[in-house]
Hints:
By secondary structure, the chain is α/β, with parallel strands linked by helices. It has 3 domains: about 1-130, Nucleotidyltransferase, domain 5 (2-Layer Sandwich); about 140-275; about 285-415, no CATH class. It has 18 helices and 7 strands. Helix 16 (about 360-375) packs antiparallel against helix 17.
Amino acid sequence: MLFVGDDWAEDHHDVEVLDDSGRRLAKARLPEGMAGMSRLHELLAEHLGEDSISAETGMLAEGEVIVGIETDRGPWVAALIAAGYRVFAINPMSAARYRERHSTSGAKSDPGDAHVLAEIVRLDRAHHRPIAGDSDAVEGLKLVARSHQSLIWERTRHLQRLRQALREFFPAALDALAVGGLELADPDALELLERAGDPDRAVRLSRSKIAAILKRARRREVEAKTEAIQAALRAPALRQAAAIEAAYATIAASQVRLIVGLNAQVPALEEVVAQGFGQHPDAEIYLSQPGLGTVLGARVLAEFGDDPQRYRDHKARRNYAGTSPITRASGRKTVVLARYARNRRLGDATHQWAFCSLSASPGARAYYDQLRARGTSHHAALRQLGNRLVGILHGCLKTRTPYDETTAWAHRQASAA
């Protein structure tokens, strides 16, 4: 067996090859791309025995080459997996702690990091997770689902920046939106801010233009809302200096244009997510879970993946989701804490899933109410409910059966009785 440490950079890879005993067989700096990958194959072939190649398939025998690298994506990693190497994606924090464990000087270099990664997969690979064998379909779904979620997060950030800018120089605009029953992210609210982006332009905005904006958005009680919005925009207010107002107006206008663009792209990408999710064979099982719709179900499926061998049991899936707690015990003191080192995207999706399940599943609602009655906080109760839902999902995927309310919560109902 050969153990390879691969410390990657944007344009090159530092690699080190060790044998079973930890003896260094080779080290090199390889360029990114086809040339570097070909050189790596040649380097490993020099040290592989003839019995490493299967006579039946002509392929490298499983487990003959084990690679440690600090990423789980990209064409380089895909090429390593395609070549038959067993690849471990090592968390950079784990690699840093391992380096400190063997060296207290604080020295660090790319070749040194490659050596650390090779030693990790040689000695401690049992404590790390190999890259999952997910299908290409779910990998593609993960890309678009993450991009869709990132756009939503970006829109929220830009809305917060726009709100803050308006508070600083034009709070009357926020008051006008409030009295008109408009949310800052609404298309008509953004159009109104484009036409009344500063106090001077807002005073000149006519009632007919405000009404036209509301009518295009199919708002009710247009006349009353138009009058209230115009009054709020023209109300006396404290002002900033002209130069400062102009700067703020430019900032607000740029934020409005960004949000308008994001509002157009989020639904378009959501359609792609829904299409990819609907074509996956596990979609029916995910959609049967209470609280999971198309978008949220796609996120959960994408982050969990579809490799049937990835999770040994329901506990392993819960640990990956970050819903299971961690215990810190020292002497007579034992503390149970939430698991914050986790897949942030999956954790966010699971938290939303638990919240949505409260109105879709009587069993989930009863379990949540029991936790709250014991004094558990809202978010802690949702984490525990999410932990339970992840376990139920694991059982459904394992048995290839859809969710059943009675089966999922029967034991808790019996205990309560």
